[in-house]
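Quick one:
INPUT:
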């Protein structure tokens, strides 16, 4: 589900990072120049676009999960909201010279988004391309976000422009074990499973809306699908939502008694996943962080009360629940479980 129902294990993981940027003022109020922006008209700023963008960034797309520093207990630091995190991920933890990937500062400061155009930000979100045309790391889930609507991408840009500028020098990523020569290939929309409900079912439209939230504008599918390092598309398109993606407890500040690696849960209605869960149970897991037995879910599932999904609307959480509980079931086998309170 859009929630990261997590179980642990022994593999290093990598999660999505939204590399976006914008123009604005620095924290002294000075207007910063935009290079080569003549062909890029700013996106329309309306209350509706701002509100939609804020909601998506905070409670659906999960941008802050990667772009905001955490305290020692793993909670996001609101005073550094979206200011980026040096060495947020390490894809080669045994070698200090390679593999460290930082999450960029997404505030409209000179050290962040200040010199990107609106269109450059949109392209980063949807296509995984930086303002200089270089491909972004596949940790940025542009391969998922590519399928969101243009209106939602623009709304995210509008919200990012509004943030308080924060000075935060973020180091460039270190050389990677495998050189990045192109952005990751987007997940084909045809590969994203649809609900098994017939189109005549009263809940069909809600399930399809849940599909959009979970697989196109949100990052549920990204976290709950097996990672592929040998593919241009980072996710195993034959096992979408079947879980078993690994997340480093160190990178996500997951507290003991969690093991060194936490694995995402199979969120298809198979016996190895969420068979027997109702849409309401899934919605409760997303917004309140408890499973079908009332046990607290493991981080890095960003559910309530401290996680971003706590702000998801009840209708949206239920739509995701309807979708996930009516997916074609996938047998994921045994996934190591995470201790729950």
């Amino acid at each position: 589900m859009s929630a990261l129902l997590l179980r642990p294990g022994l593999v290093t993981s990598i999660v999505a990072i939204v590399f976006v940027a914008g123009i604005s003022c620095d924290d002294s109020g000075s207007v910063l120049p935009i290079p080569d922006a003549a062909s890029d008209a700013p996106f329309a700023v309306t209350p509706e676009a701002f509100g939609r963008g804020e909601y998506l960034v905070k409670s659906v797309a999960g941008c802050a999960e990667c772009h905001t520093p955490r305290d020692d207990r793993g909670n996001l630091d609101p005073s550094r909201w979206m200011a980026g995190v040096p060495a947020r991920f390490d894809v080669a933890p045994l070698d200090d010279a390679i593999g460290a990937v930082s999450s960029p500062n997404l505030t409209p400061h000179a050290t962040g988004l200040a010199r990107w155009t609106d269109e450059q930000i949109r392209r980063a979100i949807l296509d995984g391309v930086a303002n200089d045309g270089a491909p972004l790391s596949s940790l940025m889930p542009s391969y998922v976000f590519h399928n969101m609507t243009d209106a939602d991408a623009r709304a995210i840009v509008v919200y990012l422009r509004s943030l308080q500028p924060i000075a935060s020098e973020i180091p460039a990523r270190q050389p990677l074990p495998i050189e990045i020569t192109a952005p990751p290939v987007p997940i084909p929309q045809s590969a994203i499973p649809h609900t098994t409900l017939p189109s005549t079912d009263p809940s069909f439209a809600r399930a399809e809306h849940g599909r959009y939230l979970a697989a196109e504008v949100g990052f549920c599918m990204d976290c709950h699908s097996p990672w592929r390092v040998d593919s241009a598309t980072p996710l195993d398109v034959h096992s979408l939502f079947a879980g078993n993606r690994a997340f480093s407890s160190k990178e996500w500040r997951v507290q003991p008694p969690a093991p060194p690696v936490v694995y995402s849960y199979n969120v298809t209605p198979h016996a190895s996943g969420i068979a027997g869960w109702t849409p309401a149970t899934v919605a409760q897991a997303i917004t309140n962080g408890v499973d079908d037995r009332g046990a607290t879910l493991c981080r890095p599932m960003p559910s309530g009360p401290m996680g971003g999904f706590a702000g998801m609307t009840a209708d949206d959480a239920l739509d995701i629940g309807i979708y996930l509980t009516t997916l074609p079931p996938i047998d994921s086998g045994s996934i190591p479980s995470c201790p729950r309170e």
